[in-house]
Input
Amino acid sequence: SKFFFLKLALFYFRRNLTIRVPFRFIVVLSFALHFFIAAPNMQWQPFFEAKLHDETLLGYVYALIKIAVFIGLFFAPRFLGFVGSERKSIIWMQMFIAFSLMFAAFADGLWFMVIAFMIHEVGRGAIVPITDAYMHDNIVDSRQRATIDSCASMVYRCAGAIGLVFGGFVAKHFGISFTW
Output
């Protein structure tokens, strides 16, 4: 089961001092990001549909999401070069994602909401290569890097699941707009 491997990985990283700090940094930030953005990312369709009044337009929104992620992938090396540190870049990108998602949630007009959400998607596209660069520069052994990546993947999937359950509870009692 995933929990067995997660427990095994945590035991391994607790003993290995050279990769403990990068592991903790990646896993904690990964958990935080995926816990908080899981619900808005899964509920974008009803959120946009309420504003668009035509579900056939959701396909265009999805296409814009993919373009925004690609733009984020394109600008990630430039952002990393501008900031100069992978660690700081990851933190800045997480804040960028969080604030642009908040702007999208509180947006009054449709176009402002779409633009803010797409900016959030640009951040989501950029954070992956920046995190990969941080792992590559801080963890020399490729097996350890693969193990951390696998463990971080399990953590963010668990965080996303917990975030979805929490977000579903909040959406049920307070509405999707409040969850965003």
Notes: Residues 104 and 117 are 5 Å apart (CA to CA).
